[in-house]
Specification:
The protein has 472 residues and is α/β, with parallel strands linked by helices. It has 15 helices and 16 strands. Helix 9 crosses helix 14. The N terminus is likely disordered. The structure holds zinc ion (ZN).
């Protein structure tokens, strides 16, 4: 008994001496608990995603679906009782896939096997009759020089370096081979190749081709060669077939087309700050998607989670000190025009941005955040770790943030990206199975709540750069 009393006394002392820190933490814990409760018991993000995915579908820049998504999300933001909701005009590229692609491997006249391909975004079409040529398999751009024009001219270059399966962060594995997709056509054309086929950026063996952006650089239109992605199963089949019959022929036909730029919009909503109305914190994702699936993970999830952050603040009656904006960026996938436009206008209007958070890594179970910031800001972020512990959020690392918020980088703004578990992301990324059924309601909602909690902490405590500017 005596011992127990003594212990209680010590605890009281600790409370008196540590009183201030304790109070701050307790209040923050309660607010964050409140945010998660609201998201999990009364969330809206899943319903929004259902509509975006199932009622609208894939939202390629310049498409009717992209415009429907602009209208829909604006209407939904209008219903939240925010202080401002508006559309920010931005011109975007328009590329269409056209009639579905067709491809086969011909090992002897009349002996062929159909394979699954899709045009890469931005690629030119083949001739209306299609393209048929021998194939040279390479493991990356660096192999081209070795084979030289002698062995490449007149052939289709087949880039077959797979994503590295032993990397835990699958984005690293993606980064390790996406140069084949992005620059493969531009580089192969220099050696006289007539087309390229790229192994899909997918860690799984399956039959789905994965599209994605590619570039011809400043290559004249007449020199551009068609580029497609092939499923991982068919990439392996093609490679094996080449081993048996190096002079086999590959045929593909694609019907894509580039049109002049069209008018589109970023969708923006704002809760105006009650202490610093002219200092901004933003949270966002990209509203456009590729066209093969319905863009549920990439990046419908990020959009609805970002909308949810502002909705949660309204619901728990949190009045932010800084102005908090949700920005749904247009055209991340094939141009980044929306991200650039937002940053350009922010600069023009001299809007001071303190913090920007993007969710563009899928709607899977959140693990934490990556940050693009200095050590002073990162130390503050580290001090918040324990607040996230009950929600199994533990990943706080320096690293990238998000493509759309990248253009805001100015040395002061703290940039961050939500980091969900990435193991299944590339099973769906840019493929026909990036669909609503692949998103789990709770995982999606946990992501929104996790984002709202971080925005709340930044809003309450500010960033180190903002404190500097307040002092000055
Ligand atoms: Zn994305």
């Amino acid at each position: 008994m005596q011992k127990k009393l003594l212990l209680l006394g010590l605890l009281n002392l600790a409370f008196v001496f540590g009183g201030h820190a304790q109070k701050v933490n307790e209040q923050d814990s309660l607010t964050i608990r409140n945010i998660y409760d609201m998201a999990l018991l009364n969330g809206k993000s899943y319903d929004w995603l259902d509509h975006l995915s199932n009622k609208i579908g894939g939202r390629l820049s310049g498409s009717l679906e992209a415009e429907m998504a602009v209208q829909y999300t604006k209407e939904e933001l209008d219903k939240l009782g925010l202080d401002k909701v508006w559309l920010q005009p931005v011109m975007v590229p328009k590329w269409t896939r056209g009639f579905p692609e067709h491809a086969y491997i011909e090992t002897a006249p009349g002996l062929s096997k159909q394979v699954n391909i899709c045009a890469l975004g931005g690629s030119v079409a083949t001739s209306p009759l299609g393209l048929k040529a021998e194939v040279i398999e390479v493991q990356g751009l660096e192999d081209l020089k070795e084979y030289g024009r002698e062995q490449i001219e007149g052939k289709i270059v087949f880039y077959n370096r797979p994503m590295q399966a032993n990397l835990i962060n699958t984005f690293e594995a993606y980064g390790g081979c996406v140069d084949q997709r992005y620059a493969g056509a531009m580089e192969a054309a220099k050696y006289g190749a007539v087309g390229i086929v790229v192994r899909s950026m997918n860690l799984r063996q399956d039959d789905l081709p994965h599209t994605g952006s590619m570039s011809y650089g400043d290559m004249p239109a007449s020199k551009r060669i068609p580029a497609c992605a092939i499923s991982t199963n068919d990439a392996d089949y093609l490679s094996r077939s080449l081993g048996l019959k190096p002079d086999l022929q590959f045929y593909f036909k694609q019907n894509c087309k580039v049109y002049p730029d069209v008018q589109s919009y970023n969708v923006i909503g704002e809760i105006t700050g009650n202490v610093y109305p002219d200092k901004y914190m933003i949270v966002g994702g990209h509203l456009d998607s590729w066209d093969l699936g319905d863009g549920s993970h990439d990046d419908g999830a990020g959009c609805v989670q970002s909308m949810e952050v502002l909705r949660l603040f309204k619901k728990i009656n949190y009045k932010p000190r800084h102005s908090i904006r949700v920005v749904l960026f247009m055209n991340e996938e094939n141009g980044l025009r929306g991200g650039r436009k937002y940053a350009e206008e922010a600069k023009l209007k001299q809007e001071e941005h303190l913090f920007a958070l993007e969710s563009d890594a899928g709607g899977f179970t959140p693990r934490g955040f990556s940050f693009d910031t200095d050590t002073a800001n990162f130390a503050q972020i580290e001090s918040w770790r324990s607040l996230f512990k009950p929600y199994l959020i533990h990943y706080f690392e320096l690293g990238g943030s998000g493509a759309d918020i990248g253009p805001l980088k100015d040395g002061n703004v703290v940039l961050a990206g939500l980091r969900p578990d990435s193991q299944r992301y590339f099973d769906h990324h840019h493929a026909a199975n990036d669909t609503f059924d692949a998103v789990n309601r709770r995982e999606l909602e946990l992501g929104g709540a996790t984002m709202a909690s971080l925005v709340y902490l930044f809003d309450k405590y500010g960033t180190k750069s903002s404190m500097q500017s307040v002092k000055n």
